[in-house]
Design brief:
Order of helices and strands: EHHEEHEEHEHHHHEHEHEEHHHHEHEEH
Distance between the termini: 8 Å
Number of strands: 13
Number of helices: 16
Strand order of the largest sheet: 6-7-8-3-9-10
Length: 348
């Protein structure tokens, strides 16, 4: 793990029930989630979570319903306190914050985008976008230009005086993103932010987020149950199952090196040609003869279209015009075959 992440979660446990501290002894002794519930009436929400979230990157936490992903994100801003463990923001343990310092952190360091928008119905769009500085008591002349800028940036210029009920779901979520950006917080927490949207609108919102992230380099923690969405957005992907991290890594690496059968099944239906990038399967340059050039960020689907189905050649791989490797088309074909679980298990 990195030595200086923006967010660092260490040995985090969460047990729901009347006597969670007492149950920690049983969990550490090896009792499982089902037995803890059936025999002791407690729910094991998170178990020994260790994750680093890097500054300027998007960490996507995903898993099926009940895996603990929403519970995890709520620990970062202490909407939930853990049973054991640490949550560090730039090295400071937020569990040690008093109420004043915690409130200040939530106002200045973090913003949150919710699944169901969480707009205030009695405030207009501009007031919703400027909610954080309004709550801080900032004068309107200091935040009005910023709020209007981000409304324009998310495509809602001209809607400042409208109210949430006058907007579509996608437009309301754009207001939510503009509100998060107007707060100027370096960390954005996004809990199933696009799950309530129709597929086409959801794709537009993902593209907008990628565009904004390329420009702003926020530290984003994004919760999702959709693997396609996770692979599209994530710099770092964390897969949860029953409150445990089963694998975390750069998404391309997980696709090519699943750690167990659960992850294999999880990624089974992914269109690998559309998701995998040339950089993930290229080799060091070792020859002089090539049939053409491809960018390292090109998808394998792009390369297949380029070849016209001929898998006998070798392509030179470039990045910003510089040669960085070569792509054997036979390696491309092998990468499209469903991967078995890796024989090597890594502890995180």
């Amino acid at each position: 793990m990195s030595k200086n992440p923006m967010i660092s979660i260490r040995n985090l446990y969460k047990i729901f029930g009347d006597t969670p501290d007492k149950m920690m002894e049983l969990v550490r002794a090896g009792i499982g989630k089902e037995e803890l519930l059936e025999a002791h009436g407690h729910v094991l929400g998170l178990q020994d979570i260790n994750v680093d979230m890097q500054e300027g990157e998007t960490t996507v936490v995903m898993g099926l319903s009940g895996s603990g992903k929403s519970t995890l994100i709520r620990h970062i801003n202490r909407l939930i306190d853990p049973t054991a463990g640490e949550v560090l923001i730039q090295g400071d343990n937020v569990l040690e914050y008093d109420s004043d310092r915690l409130r200040a952190m939530r106002r200045s360091q973090m913003s949150m985008v919710f699944q169901h928008f969480a707009l205030l119905p009695h405030r207009n769009v501009l007031e919703n976008v400027a909610l954080a500085p309004i709550v801080r008591g900032d004068p309107s002349e200091s935040y009005d230009p910023e709020a209007r800028h981000w409304l324009e940036r998310v495509g809602l210029a001209g809607y400042e005086d409208h109210y949430p009920h006058q907007l579509s779901g996608g437009m309301q979520q754009r207001v939510g993103i503009a509100r998060a950006l107007t707060s100027n917080a370096p960390i954005m927490l996004m809990d199933e932010a696009f799950s309530a949207l129709d597929p086409l609108i959801r794709t537009d919102m993902q593209d907008l987020l990628l565009e904004l992230q390329n420009e702003l380099a926020k530290t984003i923690v994004f919760i999702s149950h959709d693997l396609d969405e996770a692979l599209k957005l994530a710099d770092h992907l964390v897969i949860l199952k029953d409150g445990l991290v089963v694998q975390q890594d750069e998404p391309q690496h997980i696709l090519l090196n699943p750690q167990d059968d659960y992850v294999v099944d999880f990624i089974a239906d992914i269109n690998r040609a559309r998701v995998l990038r040339v950089r993930s399967i290229m080799d060091p340059i070792s020859q002089d003869s090539f049939v053409g050039d491809v960018d390292q960020e090109a998808s394998l689907e792009d390369v297949i279209a380029l070849t016209g189905g001929d898998t006998s050649g070798m392509y030179r791989v470039t990045r910003a015009g510089a040669v960085v490797g070569q792509l054997d088309l036979k390696a491309l074909v092998r990468a499209l075959v469903r991967t078995k679980a890796s024989d090597t298990r890594r502890a995180f």
